[in-house]
Amino acid sequence: MIERVILLIPQCTTLNHLKQIHANLIKLPADLTALISFAAASGSPPLFSYAAVVFRSLRRRTTFQYNTVIAGYARTNQPERAVSCYKDMLQEGLIRNNYTFTPLVKACSILAADSPATGLSAHGHVLKLGFFRDLFIATALIDFYASNFDMSAAVELFDEMPAKDVVLWTAMINGYGKIGDAVNARKVFDEMPDRNVVSWSAIMAAYSQSDDFREVLCLYKRMEQFELKPNESIIVTALTACARLGALAQGLWIHSYAEKCRYTSNPILATALVDMYSKCGRIDLALLVFEKIRDRDTGAWNAIISGVAMTGNASKALELFDGMVASGTRANEATFVALLTACTHAKWIDLGLSLFEDMSSVYAIEPKIEHCGCIVDLLARSGRLEEAERFVCEKMGGIGNADGNVWGALLGACRIYGRVEIGDRLWRELTSEGSPDYGIYVLAYNMYREAGWGAEAKRVRSLLEQKRMKKTPGCSTIEVDGVVEEFLAGDVLHPHAAEVCGVLCSMLCRARAPAAAPATAPAALYEYDDEATYMSLDV
């Protein structure tokens, strides 16, 4: 009878089922370890929460049960309780083994930002009890040190291991990826004696974390040459790279492969497809993929709303938002950034302001600087500069507390609408309270120059030269015959750099010809003057 009841445990799908089995086990009576183990491994917070109560009610607990519950707490993102459970284990004087420390250290990794000392203490216990050569514990410790941004300690631990398996090597790649160090991640990857699909996934994620999306696609192609089957994580990383590079042809091919492997039912991967098609300008395909997603979470809705907003179709973006609300999906900060951006493109001021107010009053979302920036941009683009300035003072605490996006929106609008008096006041406040970057200096210079305020323009230029600020080189990509070509401003290493610059100089000369000169000031930004422009083209 006991065996029959225990065999029913893996079939539990609801909390009521688990409670019924628990009741039968108490009546028999029978050991509850199997029930606790199942709930801890299920990853279901309700099931495990109930099992944890059952565990705490036991008069006698074993090391195995403690290990199981610690793992359950780590798996359900309750690191504090995992550590507390370990302390209870110490007080009971139970023997700890290698299965104790792997989940405990994982819990410490979650706590690394707030309480790094907890993980260091756990490492001390590992050393004291002689488990420092256990590969699973070492892997968890490397992840902990990476979460604590201490890769030097992770390297020391890695070097001390007499035997290293593919999981330990991959942990080092993940560690470097977490801190954005793709160079050292690649060194580890190249030194690995053996690699598996997870190793490839880790190195591609490391490059993605470092925004080197070209290398992500190069690694994807190289992986194909080794005839390794990409997993869903790799497909998501590759699609993200396609989205950032605008590599539509490669994105289409990866989508085809994902459908062949039946990966598209994965909601995270489907969301990545929506994002890729949106950023590549194929909102029609993004909508088709979105319509096929069965369980649409907040990420999926945000991806399609953002994609539609980027095309300037504010009506469709708001229609999708209504559908999101009707479906019961909870909106978040990113949702409203997309909606406010859509309102900015459509110059729907009243609706944008209404959505901003609804964020806190209706959706319980506290507006952040990104949302405030959207409102400032919305007002400024519509020429309502006084309202935009007042909004900055009332909602953001003054111009000095804003960011580059807000400063750029205000100064850019002052230039476009010829409101130099407001722009001059804002610029003076900004230079005394804020820290404008190169682009903001250029905006101020252009505003003064176009308005004929030569002395002020020269003063801005002089300030910029004194600070020795330099512009971050612009970068653009284009996909030709499935190959992504990247162009960096000022780059002379590209094999066709001389030809490209020659064509650009020819076009610029034609644009500067008297016949082509516009009657009014151009809308495009200068970068100081024509000499500076030619200087950037000089090869």
Strand content range: under 5%
Number of helices: 30
Class per helix and strand makeup: mainly alpha
Radius of gyration: 29 Å
Nearest-integer average pLDDT: 88
**Beta-strand segment tally:** 2
Query: How are the strands ordered across the major sheet?
Result: 1-2
Q: Based on CA inertia axes, which overall geometry fits?
A: globular
N- to C-terminal distance? 85 Å
Helix content: 55-70%
The parts where pLDDT drops under 50 for at least 5 residues are: 516-539
| Biggest beta sheet attributes | 2 strands, antiparallel
Characterize this entry briefly:
The chain has helices at 2-8, 15-27, 33-42, 45-57, 63-75, 79-91, 98-110, 116-129, 135-147, 151-160, 166-178, 182-191, 197-209, 213-225, 232-245, 248-260, 267-279, 283-292, 298-310, 314-326, 333-346, 349-361, 369-381, 385-396, 404-416, 420-433, 438-450, 454-467, 497-512, 530-537, and strands at residues 475-480, 483-488.
Please render the helix and strand layout as text:
Elements: H1 2-8, H2 15-27, H3 33-42, H4 45-57, H5 63-75, H6 79-91, H7 98-110, H8 116-129, H9 135-147, H10 151-160, H11 166-178, H12 182-191, H13 197-209, H14 213-225, H15 232-245, H16 248-260, H17 267-279, H18 283-292, H19 298-310, H20 314-326, H21 333-346, H22 349-361, H23 369-381, H24 385-396, H25 404-416, H26 420-433, H27 438-450, H28 454-467, E1 475-480, E2 483-488, H29 497-512, H30 530-537
Antiparallel strand pairs: 1-2
Helix pairs in contact: 3-4, 3-5, 5-6, 5-7, 6-7, 7-8, 7-9, 9-10, 9-11, 10-11, 11-12, 11-13, 12-13, 13-14, 13-15, 14-15, 15-16, 15-17, 17-18, 17-19, 18-19, 19-20, 19-21, 20-21, 21-22, 21-23, 22-23, 23-24, 23-25, 25-26, 25-27, 27-28
